[in-house]
Amino acid sequence: MRVIFAGTPEFARLAYEAIAKAGHEVPLVLTQPDRPSGRGLKLTPSPVKQEALAQGAQVLQPQSLRLDGKYPDEARQVQQVLQALAPDVMVVAAYGLILPQWVLDLPKYGCLNIHASLLPRWRGAAPIQRAIEAGDAQTGVAIMQMDAGLDTGDVLLEKSIDITDQTAAELHDQLAQMGAECITAVLGKLGTAELKAVPQPEEGVTYAAKLEKSEAPIDINQDAQTIARRIRAFNPVPGATLQLPGLKDPVKVWQAVALDENTGAVPGSVLRATAEGVDIATGQGVLRLLELQKAGGKRQPVAVFVTGWKP
Length: 311
Prior knowledge:
Pfam families: Formyl_trans_C (PF02911), Formyl_trans_N (PF00551). Its EC number is 2.1.2.9. One of its GO terms (cellular component) is cytosol. The protein is elongated. It has two domains: 2-208, Rossmann fold (3-Layer(aba) Sandwich), CATH 3.40.50.170; 213-308, Roll (Methionyl-tRNA Fmet Formyltransferase, Chain A, domain 2), CATH 3.10.25.10. It has eight helices and 17 strands. Helices cover 27% and strands 27% of the residues.
């Protein structure tokens, strides 16, 4: 297969690497423009671009693919290159740009998307985090035939995984590996009768809204189970924050568990602060903080944190 790959972060890099290792020809990679990163805000190529350059593929980084948009010259350049390459398929994974209809129609077998949820559950930008936050028992990866809608295309392959106590970072890594395995399986069957496109059901559609920094503050009036899920869902981004007594700025809470303990205490009250955890009363139950970070400091296990803090 002659494959055009479009993706940007580490989730996509694993899929690109797997496609290349499987023996498919990947002459062109599309990825987001280099972004400022680190303390020095140095322009840094995406993980996918770094992998593409190592593989010797051509890389294009348009700011838009719309021929009638703000950057029509960049879009036309991509169109000319794609037409000349005559790809069998385009694989898209967390690319970050909307694909206009001309892109969807150009490859022989269209465009396939690696989506980190069991569609139609959690269409949209943040399916991994929203699945954890909502308390879903399972999530997974769907390989979808892309159409003009938002994650509405027919599903070619799905694989599920249980959600237990993973953080978003841990679940991301598991789904990234699963996505790489699933897309190579689909490419191996593309164009054969073995591969069946299944329309998504109309029932059960939910949307995974983009994560916002404004969601970071913990509402301690919620129940402990809900708060613990949000902490796992927002690790590492945007991070969950909580104002503790005796500290000027909120701390980031990286790890916490819910205790099935009803105290009757006012939500936000510090019940205990030991090397085992900082126990906080919530709207229902107790939240035990296990890993914290003061403003401007480093992440610390609670046994270290409590030595320099007294409630």
